[in-house]
Amino acid sequence: MSKLQALRDRQLKAFSDKLKSENDAIFEKYTKLKKFVKDQKKRTKKVSKKHEWTQRKSRLQQEAEDAENELLTNCRILADSKDLQFGEDFIEMLSTYERQEGEMKMLSHKVNGIIIAFLSAKNYIFSTLESMHESNEEPAPIEVFFKDLRSTLVSIRDEIQALGAVEEELDQFMRQHNPVQADGSSTKQSSRPADCESVLQGLLDKYVLAESHVKDEVRRDFARLEQMIQRTRREMRPGSGSKQSTGDTTTLPKLPHLKQSGGGSVTSSFMRARNEAAKKAQRKGRKALLKEISDILPHIKYSTLERQNEQFQQQQQQRIRSKETLELHMRELKQVAKVSEEKLLKSSNEAKKKATSAVACLKWEIHADAYTQQLEHCRKEKAIDNEIQAFMTLEDERKAQQEKERREEAARKERSHQKQLLAVYHDEVERKRLAEAEDVRMRKLQEDHERVLSLVETEKRVKFRQQLDSVKMEERKAKEELIKEGEIARHLRLERLAASVAPEVEADPARARAHTFASSSMFEEDGEGRAFHDVHGYFDEKLFQDQRFRITEALRAAGLHATDYGRSVLTDIKSNVQHRPDMRTTYDKMVHR
């Protein structure tokens, strides 16, 4: 009964271990599957967000291309405008395409930068969350993580707002370079970027716990950047460009010989001349168009137009350079704000850590007595638990020793019983072996006796068969002798018959090889006898005149004359040679008379 119980316990333990391992494998598989689903969701979210920004970028590029096409159209119909004057406005409208191309490139670079900044911030958030989820170490304080997350989200919000500002700037740029309105007023607006003081004040208000020397360092950085921005804005003001530096303010002369009408429109003859010049110079460029205008209007010199064109281009280059410098300062402002925010955040975290450590020391000093009493109580409880554990250990060891002695006694009894059974088994095996050996010996004696009897009978039959074979051999020899004698007599008879009918013809080889009457005509030089004597064969030139013969020879050369295909081809082809009497053999003449 104890063995059965032990076997049952072992089976239950093995089954429980197997079930536990299966549960662990299922749990591990579930964990991997859950992580895979999470990664797939995260990847899908990344791909969808990236696709959204890509669509937005393509939409902005399409709008820029539409604006470019619209400006080209405006340049083509520029000569038809009723309120146009031949001065600086005319040259400005001619150079609209070049200026717009440069600003479109700047806007494209700005959009690409914003998209890259957004994706980098998003990757930073996801990497931070994954590292906190997968690491087994003690994570940082949750307040620090949420402050970092908040600062990152604020930067992303600023980038999105900047992207909205870029779209508004693109709309303003398109409205700015549209043809002038009916009332002569143009829609030129500019959006003022963020101020350094507001950004600095926002950072200082956000991180109040930062140290004073860090705040002073941040103020110095913002002050230096503010001076650079102010200097750039002063350079962008009107009057500080290249036109004032050149000192040439020459304007185009008026046209007194042309008649003006109400509303500032010129006569129809001038309109036709200008339209023709614009159509001719539509694909020639600005210089060709200025040349055409100077040829049509002699009072407007080409040098004056070219000088004002150069002045206008210098002004535009100065404006573009100032705008690029200002945008560079704005990007630097964002970078300085980011670096300053990191410095303030680090300083605030250090101040918070110092305050936290001071509070912890103060709490320890206040509750030191209570902690000591609790520690003593815990030590006493641990000592009592150790004594109980030692007593339980001794009791378990005593029971284990008793169980071990009981199992050894049962094993000794089992071994003695098995030895007795083994001795009985060996005795039985030895008895069976001796009995089998005696049976084998008796069977061998019986087989030897039977073999001796069979040898006596066999010897009698062999002697009788030898006698029969000797009689048959003598009879066969007698028959062979009779056959030989008959053959000899037959040969003698044949010799006597041959001697009685011997030929009496003399040997004449020349006569045997001579031509006959029919064959002699085949070798005559005149060839007259060929058609009047029997022909016993064919010539090659006669045979190859037959189409069927030529095809037969070709099939035989290809090895196809014995196939079904060769036989079918020869059956379908008819001979194209009419048989003449001289082509027929003597046998044909005899058969087909």
TrEMBL record:
Assigned keywords, A-Z: Coiled coil
Basic and acidic residues composition bias: residue spans: 397-413
Signal peptide feature range: none
Coiled-coil portions: 305-350
Spans annotated as Disordered: 233-267, 397-418
Polar residues: bias regions: 241-252
Superkingdom per UniProt: Eukaryota
Keyword Coiled coil in annotation: yes
UniProt name for this protein: Uncharacterized protein
Organism of origin: Chloropicon primus
